[in-house]
Amino acid sequence: MVNETIVSTIVVGVDGSDDSRRAVQWAGRLAGVVGARVIAVHAVGLLEHEPGDPGAEHLRPALEQWTEALEALPDDRVERRLVAGDPAGAVAETVAATAADLLVVGTRGAGAHGAVGLGSTSLRLAEHCACPLVVVPALSGQ
Amino acid sequence: MTKAVVAGPFAAPDHSLVGHPERPSRVTAAAAGIDALGLDRDRIDVEPRLATVDELSRVHDASYLRELEAFCASGGGRLDPDTFAGTESWTAARQASGAGLAAVDALAAGRADVAFVIARPPGHHALADRAMGFCLVNNVAVSASALADAGERVLIVDWDVHHGNGTQAIFWNDDRVCYVSMHQDRFYPGTGAVDEVGGPDALGLTVNIPLPARATGDLMERALDEVVAPITERFAPTWVLVSAGFDAHRDDPLADLALSSGDFARLATRVRAFAPASGRLAFFLEGGYDLEAIQKSVTATLGAIVGERHENEPATNGGPGAEAVSRARSVHEDLLRHQQW
């Protein structure tokens, strides 16, 4: 059972894919109901680097756009983070650092593929994450 | 005269993705860097061979290797947002690891004083159970593990600008291998903090020196002198393997450190001093994505070892990061007082 006493911090993984946007929407709706804060995390990969921007702040506008579903929440309950690393590592690190109560991710991110054992971020998180995990399914037919 | 084994060049032209920076021309550039030394009779070329599954299984899960082979056979695709594999990538990965094994074999046979492995895909991000960060199989770890299983004590020095999370994880609790990384702080892959020092059976044998953006070569030299040298003296390696990425060069498009090719020459000289004897030092190409920087830096690195005269970019100094080196020194001085390995 989910209520405000056990879900105060929700982390959601963000990569700009359609699946990730649905995860953000789901996390935002839940946060609105239970009064939780949401921390949206984008893992900054090797290919996203721009010289002279070690913190990858050039991605900030995109992150804002990918998480626009969170605009319905009060500003003080939304945080957007850019974390260097692979998606599973960056999200798990954020869960640990924030003592999050719930993690929300999409089924397949922008870089994922069909080989279950090799690249499934959601499965990897299910195995290693320190809090309950919600995997928001893709729309039927995708 | 110093003789060099060159394993490769193995450019793996069929392992490529249009527009991706980890591309075959990186190897071509590295090979040109070695050619520029004009080693002639002091150069021994060895053909890469295919590493066997048993050799790869020393550091990788058998299930991962099976999945990777099957994934490639089925046409491949993206393994993560950064990493790709295609039909020929399984063979390419085995060949890149086999190049390292062939180089080590040649040194062990007394054929040369130093080896340089010019092959791709790179390896140091590859974990036991997954590909990551352009890497499919951990080449340096495969060679280090083969040596360790033969009773050797292996020092791995990783000067790629990105932390070698895969190599660190593989040898985290292995007291036969000391892993040292100097890399850009708060950067991909997000690991490599100074307080990551190894597991309970190998405490202090993982050494991380994260440096801030714009750090210069003098900081890495200082780190080798002040942090790594005392550990090496205690650890007494019988082999030294270098994860030689050249993306810490100031011209590299994927990072923000500020080294020159001349710095890599100075680092190579210092690392050579950690080897117990001639013929126990091998360089493995890791990252580096500016072709001219790769070429110049490879020339400088191997040139410093073989003593060939060549003109390098001046060494760099004055960048930020002195406190990071001091912090790493403090952490490992404390550990050294209590560890005997």
Oligomer: heterodimer
Strand order of the largest sheet of chain B: 2-1-5-10-9-6-7-8
* Fourth-tier CATH superfamily name of chain B: Histone deacetylase domain
Q: What is the count of β-strands of chain B?
A: 10
CATH topology (level 3) name of chain B: Arginase, Chain A
Determine the strand fraction of chain B and express it as a percent band.
5-15%
CATH class type of chain B: Alpha Beta
Describe the strand arrangement of the main beta sheet of chain A, using strand numbers. Answer: 3-2-1-4-5
Q: Which segments of chain B are poorly predicted (pLDDT under 50) over 5 or more consecutive residues? A: none
Low-confidence stretches of chain A: none
Annotated CATH homologous superfamily of chain A: HUPs
Apparent shape of chain B: globular
Order of helices and strands of chain B: EHEHHEEHEHEHEEHEHEHH
Provide a count of the helices of chain A: 5
Provide a descriptive summary of the structure in words.
The complex is a heterodimer of chains A (about 140) and B (about 350). Chain A has about 140 residues and is of the alpha/beta class. Chain A has a single domain (about 10-135), classed as Rossmann fold (3-Layer(aba) Sandwich). Helix content of chain A is about 35%, strand content about 20%. Chain A contains 5 helices and 5 strands. Chain A has a 5-stranded parallel β-sheet with strand order 3-2-1-4-5, with helices on both faces. In chain A, strand 1 (about 10-15), helix 1 (about 20-35) and strand 2 form a beta-alpha-beta unit. Chain A is globular. Chain B is an alpha/beta fold and about 350 residues long. Chain B has a single domain (about 5-335), classed as Histone deacetylase domain (Arginase, Chain A). Helix content of chain B is about 40%, strand content about 15%. Chain B has helices at about 25-35, 55, 60-75, 90-110, 140-150, 165-170, 215-235, 260-270, 290-305, 320-340; strands at about 5-10, 45, 75-80, 85, 115-120, 155-160, 175-185, 205-210, 240-245, 280-285. In chain B, the strands form 2 sheets. An 8-stranded parallel β-sheet of chain B has the order 2-1-5-10-9-6-7-8, with helices on both faces. In chain B, strands 3-4 form a two-stranded antiparallel sheet. The mean pLDDT of chain B is about 95.
